[in-house]
Amino acid sequence: MPYKSISYTKEQNKAIVKLNRPEALNALNRETLSELESALDEIRSDPEVNVVVITAEGQKAFSAGADLKEASGLDEAGVRELIESGQRVYRKIDDLPKPVLVAINGIALGGGVEMSLAGDVRVASETAKLGSPEVNIGLIPGWGGTQRLPKLLGKGKAAELIFTGGIVDAKEAERIGLIDRVLSQDEFTSAVHRMADAIASKPSTSRAELIQVVKSA
Amino acid sequence: MEFKTVSYTKESSFLSPEENIAVVKLNRPEVSNALSKDMLLEIDSALEEIRRDEQARVVILSAEGEKAFCTGIDPEEPDRQDAERLAEQILKKVEEFDKPIIAAVAGEVSGLGVGVALACDMRVAAENAKLQNPTEVVRRLAKIVGRPNAAATLFSGRPIDAREAESVGLVNKVVPTDELLTTVNWTAGKIATSAPLAVRLSKKCVNKSFEVSIVEGNELELDAILQCAKTEDLREGIKAVFEKRTPQFKGK
Q: Is A13 a domain residue?
């Protein structure tokens, strides 16, 4: 299936999904979400795939979050539909019976961070910045952020990030457990492939095992 | 209202000249800020006053003196059980309070004092802080810490110093003792200048996250977003993004 706002490729047993609107900092609009959903459905039923990498085109941003230009023009029914669609797509990431490595290649804000939370293991380039700035525009993290962040970071850290709308750099993100490993910019792509291969070659079940694999790859 | 066993003031931050931060301090340093019934009732009254005060967007819960944040129920309290019951009610109120509460802890934190700190949404600790009540810590652990591997460290039963508390996620941050209040003021200031309804609703969703499934949690989020979508603050927030300026939220 041809995609526009994302790209989907397979390399041996790796499925690589990339957000592909770098000119819009990979902001998540309705088309991107619906294409992601199709790709996830495809991946789910593809027996050849045993590891999934979610990342993005461009060096600047993984994703700046929901596409505010599009979202601000929606009526109530449209907002409902947008929120439900993002929630459903992220639950599909969560529910994939294959390990999902999220490779954060730059800024990840709001819905971008929430997408990463639905994956199993997160790595980020050293230039990445992550945050949930929703309260600074009058919103809450509505694509699962208020639910998944506390479970990952603990309530205190999650509360701080969400209530202050704060943004942290890759190092701090690693310190608080928001990501599992920081990668240097030069080696980013090769390291991500190496990790995905390591995950694929060593069938693991628990998140703890996955983190080990990613840290030593 | 005049308080005797606590102090209640309001402060601004460098982010806004408005006094939008409520500061409640336990104020019996001569008895290591032990909780008497009077003190518990005054904490309750202060919270009620803050609830009604639209200007107050966030609360700092702290204590006078650097030696002790709170050492639990006052041993001099004649009816201990009664005081414990009251304390439990107040802890629940702190946890569910509709404005975020940040604990700023220094020195000894023991007995139910640990419960007070852990009932708050987040904690900033001075370097000299020491948490001494593993039972209370363990009881509230799952929610606070998130990472299961931390449990092993804490089950050992000994007091936990500030750095260790930070490394296992029990406190958000450790700072030099004389920087405690400025650090907390900065965090509080950030919250106080965010959109108030959004902060309130996100606290509700975060609090529920350990009790509900992801599907139910997503429904809570959707409901919150639809409420936010009706506010002037959201329009202002989005406009400010496009105009590359700081938004001015009115709580409407």
A: yes
Q: Which of A48, A70, A134, A187 is catalytic?
A: A134
Other Cβ atoms within 10 Å of B219 Cβ, number:
14
Who among B144, B201, B222 is closest to A83 (CB)?
B222
Contacts of B212 in chain A (CB under 8 A): 147
Whole-model pTM: value is: 0.94
How close, in Å, is residue B64 to chain A by CA atoms? 23
Nearest chain A CA: its distance from B57 CA (Å): 11
pLDDT digits (tens, 9 = 90+) for B98-137: 999 999 999 999 989 999 999 999 999 999 999 987 666 6
CB contact under 8 A, B199 and A68: no
For residue B214, give the chain A residue with the closest CA: A147
The structural domain count of chain A equals: 1
ipTM: 0.95
**Structural domain boundaries, residue A31:** 6-216
Task: Look up B221 and say whether it is catalytic.
Answer: no
| Span(s) in chain B for CATH 3.90.226.10 | 6-192
pLDDT band at B167 (very low <50, low <70, confident <90, very high): confident
Q: What CATH number does domain B196-242 carry, 1.10.12, 3.40.50, 1.10.10, 1.10.287?
A: 1.10.12
Distance from the A198 Cα atom to the nearest Cα atom in chain B, whole angstroms: 24
Terminal Cα-to-Cα distance of chain B (whole angstroms): 28
Q: What share of chain B is helix, strand, coil (3-state, %, to 5)?
A: 50, 20, 30
- For the segment(s) B6-192, the CATH number from 3.40.30.10, 3.30.360.10, 1.10.540.10, 3.90.226.10 is 3.90.226.10
| CATH number (domain holding residue A155) | 3.90.226.10
